[in-house]
Design goal:
By secondary structure, the protein is mainly alpha-helical. It has 2 domains: 104 residues, no CATH class; 43 residues. The chain contains 6 helices and 2 strands; from the N terminus they run ααααββαα. It has a two-stranded antiparallel sheet. A hairpin with a 6-residue loop joins β1 and β2.
């Protein structure tokens, strides 16, 4: 996969791809802990304002993330370039992540979220509220079980009883409404 140049420079320094991506995700998580905002643009502007007005603090966050785990090479804020405009939100899990794709249009934070996003777009609806092809409230019931199918008859009896109970409650509610005048 082709990465954005700041991530590629970390990879070229001797860090594996997975670790470089995890490092940028760790830095993003540190900034999310410090300057969390529900809107992505506000979050980006808060990080940019920290970089502009509190540069030493901005650099210490990056250095702290680099020092948190043992890496094959020593990294600091000079080698790890963090651009606030690359931070975005995942369409599936709504977590902030650093977009390492070269074109900057990644919608998901991980392969798992990308798989889920593709499933959501295929079935319709949105990633937050997908439309399923099978109705979750439906229970598949065989309304004509064989004579020796005990489980089928028990399930059919249970469904019939639940339906009678629902109809009875519906009738009682209607009676209450009629006699409440």
């Amino acid at each position: 996969m082709a990465y954005v140049k700041e991530v590629q420079s970390v990879i070229d320094a001797g860090v594996s791809e997975e670790i470089a991506i995890a490092l940028y995700d760790l830095i993003t998580a540190e900034f999310e802990y410090i300057a969390e905002h529900p809107e992505t643009e506000q979050f980006r502007s808060r990080i940019a304002s920290i970089r502009k007005h509190e540069l030493a603090f901005f650099r210490s966050i990056i250095d702290g993330a680099c020092a948190k785990y043992p890496l094959p090479v020593e990294l600091n804020w000079r080698k790890v370039i963090f651009k606030p405009k690359r931070v975005t939100r995942c369409e599936v899990c709504m977590n902030y992540f650093y977009d390492v794709s070269r074109n900057g249009r990644s919608l998901t934070c991980s392969k798992q979220c990308a798989r889920n996003y593709r499933n959501y777009t295929r079935t319709g609806g949105t990633a937050i509220d997908p439309r399923y092809s099978r109705q979750v409230q439906e229970i598949p019931v065989d309304f004509s079980p064989d004579s020796d199918d005990e489980f089928g008859h028990a399930m059919l009896d249970e469904v019939e009883e639940a339906e009678q109970q629902r109809l009875y409650q519906q009738d009682m509610e209607l009676m209450r409404r009629l006699y409440s005048f």
